[in-house]
């Protein structure tokens, strides 16, 4: 029975991140705030959304999101406000605009580059093997036989 209680407590931990005093009275605004919070990165934890994080900075960001929504901002305006303040790193799913396109394209480009280098290397090796297998001349064969004592 204790194990079951422990499992339930551990499963409910992310739900404890949003404090009761943060929750908005309007359920529609609260739902929007929760959805926006799931897409924003906690700058302390770095791999959790601010909706899941218990860090004080995550709490501040959750309050800021709710504040912007109560002020009448759309979802995009609220996210843009936070991105303008904290940079694109705050987004869990970064955009492909600006310099980020290079980060998105770097993986496939490096794979293509490595494949090209590998093909050039393998072709060079196969050609070098053919050129290195020339038979001995008659003079060289005679000399080799003398050395080996045949």
CATH topology label of the largest domain: Helicase, Ruva Protein, domain 3
Estimate the mean pLDDT confidence: 84
Spans of at least 5 consecutive residues with low confidence: none
| Category from helices, strands and their pairing | mainly alpha
Helix share of residues? 55-70%
Count of discrete structural domains: 2
Structure in words:
With 150 residues, the chain is mostly helical. It folds into two domains: 2-90, Helicase, Ruva Protein, domain 3 (Orthogonal Bundle); 105-148. It contains six helices and no strands. The protein has helices spanning 2-12, 27-38, 56-70, 75-86, 100-131, 138-148. The radius of gyration is 32 Å and the shape is elongated. The model has no long low-confidence stretch (mean pLDDT 84).
Notable characteristics:
Helicase, Ruva Protein, domain 3, 2 domains, mainly alpha, 6 helices, elongated
Structural topology:
Blueprint: H1 2-12, H2 27-38, H3 56-70, H4 75-86, H5 100-131, H6 138-148
What's the short version?
The chain is mainly alpha-helical and 150 residues long. It is 62% helix and 0% strand.
């Amino acid at each position: 029975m204790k194990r079951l209680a422990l499992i339930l407590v551990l499963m409910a931990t992310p739900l404890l991140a949003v404090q009761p005093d943060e929750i908005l009275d309007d359920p529609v605004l609260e739902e929007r705030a929760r959805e926006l919070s799931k897409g924003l990165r906690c700058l302390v934890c770095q791999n959790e959304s601010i909706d899941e994080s218990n860090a004080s900075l995550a709490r501040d960001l959750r309050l800021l999101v709710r504040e912007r929504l109560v002020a009448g901002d759309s979802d995009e305006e609220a996210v843009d406000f936070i991105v303008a303040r904290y940079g694109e790193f705050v987004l869990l799913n970064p955009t492909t605009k600006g310099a980020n396109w290079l980060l998105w394209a770097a993986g496939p480009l490096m794979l293509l580059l490595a494949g090209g280098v590998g093909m050039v290397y393998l072709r060079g090796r196969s050609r070098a093997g053919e050129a290195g297998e020339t038979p001995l001349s008659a003079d060289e064969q005679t000399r080799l036989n003398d050395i080996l004592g045949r």
